[in-house]
Amino acid sequence: MDTVTPTSLTEAYLALPVGSIPGTNGTPESDTAKNDDLAIRIRNWFVSWTNHPLWQRHMKEAPENMGFYLGGAGQWSHDYSTADYDKLRAEGRAIISINHVRPAVDTLVGLERQNRFVAKADPQGEGDVEETAAFSVLLRWVQQRCEFAEYKSEMFEDGLITSMSGQWIELDWTADPIHGDIVVTIGHPGVDVIWDPNWTRYDLSDALGVIRFKWAYSMDLEAQYPEHAAAIRASTETLKDAFLTMSGSQRSTDGGAYSGTDGYGSVRGHVIENAAVQEMFFKPQDRQLLLLECWYRDYETVYLAVNSETGVIEQYETRAQAQALVDADWDRWRVVARQKRRVRMAVVLPATFQVLEDLPSPYTNDTEAYPFVPYVTTRKGNIVKGYVEDLKDPQQVENKRISQIMDILGKFAALKAMYEEGSLVDTRSVEDQTDGKAVVYRKGRKAPGWYMPPLAELSTILTRLAIEAKVNIREVSGASASLQGIQAPADANSGVAIARLQAQGQIINTIFYDNLRRSFHIASQRLARRTQQKFTKEETFRLLDDRGEQVAVTLNPREAKGLSDAEWGEHVTRGKGQASGAGLVIRDVSALKYDMIVSETPMTASVRHTALLAIMDLAAKAPWMIPALAESIVGLIPD
Question: Are the CB atoms for 371 and 169 separated by under 8 Å?
Fold first, then answer.
């Protein structure tokens, strides 16, 4: 049989043996078509989203913003280029970088760390009060184990700098394949995660999907997905060969339309795309493939039989089942069809159009939500702006003007030796004491006059510009000197006065904290669901409650299974302290109904002291408010 060299990636795929074609893997034709459609859909999502104006702007601004936070050469970037810095450095001129952006960011982050809150569960009914209280204690322990508060602070810091960040709230089954371990991971938008840019709801519930992406070596993928190893290996070889057939500055997957091998181009009928698109997904030199983990929305239709008199609703899987009830009593019942949302997870290799996984969400009690929780500082249309972005111009002005002052003074303010030609025996005695550029004038002539630029006036102007830029940074950021704790005004003679000045300085940055609270509330819901899914076997924990006392919590006790509510009450004992031998018992974490709330009491003692001082000062000036403030005062008293 003659060997035919493929002229395009599509033809190369078709040349693979059955069972090795990307997306098929030996599956029936209907499943093959479904896999191919899913791979194409996720690939198209990734390409279109990364080219959307919102993400294009963010992926350019975020690295530059991070450079201004880190300082150094990054603070000389303008329009995403450090050409000015590189030019001055090549010429050996003065380059000064004084970082005022980082202290401003760290001030807000420090305030957040001092005001950390804890997530609690609030009972939906009176019967859940005791169990929900125990669940809150367990939830506090889970937050400490997975460093929930620490990752929240990291997410807040990244969001202030780059304008967006987020958290993955997941179960890791690598160590515990049955129950998994609760883990929190920071997602960096535009770097390792991206989502539908047309989303409008903060929790991404209306987004088409969320894609986490990373580069992986083909050999590692073969080891991770052994059932797809042969197809991955064959597809990678085909891709590598196809890339070798492309040449020229305008390479394409057509193999001839732009490469010069066919002046008229190919008319095979497949989609022709520039090789730059394909290089988004494949690195032939390293045999690396881009791996997309896509969480996307799916829907199933459910049929509801609704009783118009009693309001009773019965759910059925098929219309025929619901219609049977309606036909029996058609004057009171009617059928309603509803779309029920479900989240699925697919792992795709877009370079080879392979679907490695396509499964329902592994979070069985949280199937309607994405496991990723975003943090967005401010968004207006396609513009997402962080805290650092408006500080870049004054920071750059300050650094450039101070550098210019240093450069001018170094060039014109240095003293130069001056002597008459032939008056010195050895000129090196003078040149060694200067920069080697002594001024020599001819014998018998007057010493030359020199025009000296007004260095004092020029330095004053440039210094004033630098100082104004420094002031602008603080005014724009809202991180004033009193807020940063650098100095206190003369009239701030008490801790309460200082606290009030700091509170006033926080007003301009309220939106950042408010959006952080939204993200924290959503993430707490995800964390509570993961806690319910993980703790399903009988376990006993020795935990600390809100007052620091030890509480024994037993989850899902074996002796309680199958008991009625009355019988169950006999098995519930409650007590405090290790010596008592009693403990709190949660009947079934997975069945507990609750609402998530964010505790209003800060976790850190220093902020509690400040808040207590402010409330006591208010109570002293308004004694009639003491009854209303009594509970808050007691809650803020240090343990």
Answer: yes
